[in-house]
Amino acid sequence: MKKFFLGSVLFLAIAVVFFNCKKNSDKKAVCNIRQLIQDSVVDNFTYDDKGRLSNIAIREQLLTFEYSDNKTIITTSDAGQLWTTTTVVLNQAGLAINARMEDNQSVGVWTNFVYEYNGDQLTRATITYSNGNPSQVINYQWTGGNMTSAVIGSDTTHYDYYTNKATQAGDYLSLVQLVSGYQIYRTKNLLKSVGTNSFTYTFDADGKITSVGEVLSGAGASQIQLQYECN
């Protein structure tokens, strides 16, 4: 199956969340991320008249989103050739409970994700494969409104947060979900680190995140630049 590059934002491998940003002291505007720029690669985001993500364009790659009731269909193509179709089923809270990605280049090849929650807190993800490989189960733990660990077998990955800063558009976890096209995390605070990978944020005068600095284990440091359009 062809791998699509969406920047190292996708290393967590995990819809779209729309946030309010302050334009002045009297009025709040809805702000959507329009561009994500990293290592000279530009991700362009387009939204429909309801404020939902409709397309993500990265060079010759295109992700297209279609919505109906509690379902989102995400297709990926490269230079006009269809590669994958992902069908996402949402619960009443708008969180994904099932996502099935089918390889359009190979008949019968798919990967399926099942998500379980306690309220709006993700507790378990189960990943199954059409090729017969063993399923993967990830168990999540939460503290104080934040996801603090993910456990796969005997391996545990810890998450840390800036507890003095509320989550918002541009938080690393929100970017992961933005490019994935569906939401499974709703944390209280800005993500600070995942294991040995750490994140810092730069804000503009209105409080919006304009860049994310990331230091990824084995990959060094880089910057993610964000541009918004506010209505």
Highlighted features:
17 strands, mainly beta, 4% helix, disordered N terminus, Porin
Q: How would you explain this protein's 3D organization?
A:
This protein is mainly beta. It has one domain (8-230): Porin, CATH 2.40.160.190. It contains 1 helix and 17 strands. β16 (209-216) and β17 form a beta hairpin. The longest helix is centred in the last third of the chain and has 9 residues, at 172-180. It is globular and about 50 Å long.
Q: Given the C-alpha coordinates, what overall shape results?
A: globular
Distance between the amino and carboxyl termini: 39 Å
How much helicity do the residues have? under 10%
Q: Spell the H/E element sequence.
A: EEEEEEEEEEEEEHEEEE
CATH topology: Porin
User: At the first level of CATH, what is the class?
Assistant: Mainly Beta
Strand order of the largest sheet: 2-3-4-5-6-7-8-9-10-11-12-13-14-15-16-17
Please provide the count of β strands.
Answer: 17
Strand content: over 45%
Low-confidence segments, given as residue ranges, are: 1-25
Helix count? 1
Q: What is the topology?
A:
Elements: E1 19-22, E2 28-38, E3 41-47, E4 53-58, E5 61-68, E6 71-78, E7 81-90, E8 96-103, E9 110-118, E10 121-129, E11 136-143, E12 146-152, E13 155-166, H1 172-180, E14 189-194, E15 197-203, E16 209-216, E17 220-230
Antiparallel strand pairs: 1-2, 2-3, 2-17, 3-4, 4-5, 5-6, 6-7, 7-8, 8-9, 9-10, 10-11, 11-12, 12-13, 13-14, 14-15, 15-16, 16-17
